[in-house]
Amino acid sequence: MADRFLAHATAIAFVCLVAGNASVAGQHAAKTAKAGATRIDICHGFGCHFTSGLDLGTADGRRFSRIMAAGASSPKAERAAVSRAVRYYEDRAAGVIGIHDQPKSIASQHHRRGQMDCVDESTNTRSLLLYLERRGLLKHHTVDRNVTRGFLLDGRYPHATAVLRDRSGTKWAIDSWYEPAGGPPDIRPLSEWLKRGVMGVR
């Protein structure tokens, strides 16, 4: 009985936590749009409670250029390159913070350094995408505003993602929340992403 009560209480705390954090996603996304070309503030601790400065130097710039050059042939290839860029970027961020983020959001990790909810993840991913865009490394996409889905009553937790738009106007979710730091983000059409997440299903 105690175990069931604890699980229920944890679930409620998680729902409230994510709902509150999702409401500030736009605020932090706007903040990252002003970030410099080489210094990126990495959000962590849930809801961007902490920030750690990640300096992307010349070697990083060359690495990103090589990664993105491999995807220059088509929008599909570029999205695959973005996935590799996100993985490299998250490994670099974890090195600065000193802790590797665990997958998804666990309520007990709230306000713990290095752990990230979907607000942190989507904000950080958008920061990277803006960095790539400013350096002219996105040939087939532009960076769009972050998007959220779910409002509890529809059976889904509020959840945020970074977004790219291709030249045809199709928007793509770049969702790095489901994997641990350095794992591949989920990349799928935003229209499909918006329909998913019922009862926490990926």
Provide a concise account of the structure shown.
The chain is of the alpha+beta class and 202 residues long. It has 6 helices and 6 strands.
DSSP strand tally: 6
Fraction of residues in helix: 40-55%
- Number of individual domains: 1
The strand line-up of the biggest sheet is: 3-4-5-6
Describe the structure.
Keywords: Signal. The chain has one domain. It contains 6 helices and 6 strands, in the order ααββαααββββα. The strands form 2 sheets. A 4-stranded antiparallel β-sheet has the order 3-4-5-6.
SSE blueprint and pairings:
Elements: H1 2-22, H2 25-32, E1 39-44, E2 50-55, H3 58-69, H4 75-97, H5 118-134, E3 141-149, E4 159-166, E5 171-175, E6 186-189, H6 190-193
Antiparallel strand pairs: 1-2, 3-4, 4-5, 5-6
Helix pairs in contact: 2-5, 3-4
Features:
6 strands, 6 helices, 202 residues, disordered N terminus, 42% helix, single chain
